[in-house]
């Protein structure tokens, strides 16, 4: 029979809760003893029941284990405190270094703008001039690139417009040809019906005479 999954929440029934506590307490103490024997470790386990009853297991004297725990916790706390202080000190140094770099950048920026250059040496001025020339070349190259890209876009747009214009002309020429052909057919139809009407309106006199033809004056 498959056991159902136990929900991890407080057992409301007092009897069931006490039975579960007794079973699991015994199992936990047994597992602690096995761990101490198999792995040769110092182990201390303390359990207080709901009614305040103490259950414990230790490989040596429980008081010695507790004192050892407190010493280790104190050392760990001091270690953590030292690590925090060292980390804080590193952050302070990094902040100070970053502030110096920002200050140097601000000074360099003002010099590039032509400000606060009275204290600059001839070599520093030449260096600033060289950097400005490099910046100008880069700016001009980028500007030229943008112009070329814009020209290419305009050329592509022009080609597209020419193609559309050619298609419209072809459609217009085709329409004009159809119109001429239609007008020509209409004229042919009118001419045909005109001829037919004239032939119908022409009277032809015919007669039958017996004997010699008479001379009509």
From TrEMBL:
SUPFAM superfamilies, per database record: SRF-like
Intracellular or extracellular location(s): Nucleus
Gene Ontology cellular component terms for the protein in this record: nucleus
GO terms classed as biological process: positive regulation of transcription by RNA polymerase II
Coiled coil (residue ranges): 129-171
InterPro entries to which the protein is assigned, alphabetical: MADS-box/MEF2_TF (IPR050142), MEF2-like_N (IPR033896), TF_Kbox (IPR002487), TF_MADSbox (IPR002100), TF_MADSbox_sf (IPR036879)
Gene Ontology MF: a single term: protein dimerization activity
Entries under Gene3D superfamilies matching the protein: Transcription factor, MADS-box
Domain MADS-box: start-end pairs: 1-61
Domain K-box: 88-178
The entry's keywords: Coiled coil, DNA-binding, Nucleus, Transcription, Transcription regulation
Keyword Methyltransferase: no
Signal peptide segment: none
SMART domains the record matches: MADS
UniProt cross-references to PROSITE patterns, sorted A to Z: K_BOX (PS51297), MADS_BOX_1 (PS00350), MADS_BOX_2 (PS50066)
Keyword Transit peptide: no
UniProt-recorded name of the protein: Uncharacterized protein
The organism of origin for this protein: Cannabis sativa (Hemp)
């Amino acid at each position: 029979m498959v056991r159902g999954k136990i929900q991890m929440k407080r057992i409301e029934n007092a009897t069931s809760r006490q039975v579960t506590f007794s079973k699991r307490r015994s199992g936990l103490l047994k597992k602690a003893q096995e761990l101490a024997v198999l792995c040769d470790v110092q182990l201390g386990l303390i359990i207080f029941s709901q009614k305040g009853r103490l259950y414990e297991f230790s490989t040596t004297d429980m008081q010695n284990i507790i004192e050892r725990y407190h010493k280790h916790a104190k050392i760990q706390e001091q270690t953590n405190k030292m690590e925090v202080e060292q980390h804080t000190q590193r952050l302070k140094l990094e902040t100070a270094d970053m502030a110096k770099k920002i200050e140097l950048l601000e000074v360099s920026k003002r010099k590039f703008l032509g400000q606060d250059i009275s204290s600059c040496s001839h070599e520093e001025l030449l260096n600033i001039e060289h950097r400005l020339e490099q910046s100008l070349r880069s700016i001009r190259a980028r500007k030229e690139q943008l112009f070329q890209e814009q020209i290419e876009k305009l050329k592509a747009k022009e080609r597209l417009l020419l193609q559309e214009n050619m298609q419209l002309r072809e459609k217009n020429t085709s329409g004009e040809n159809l119109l001429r052909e239609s007008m020509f057919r209409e004229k042919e139809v009118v001419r045909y019906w005109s001829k037919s009407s004239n032939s119908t309106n022409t009277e032809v006199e015919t007669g039958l005479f017996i004997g010699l033809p008479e001379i009509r004056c």
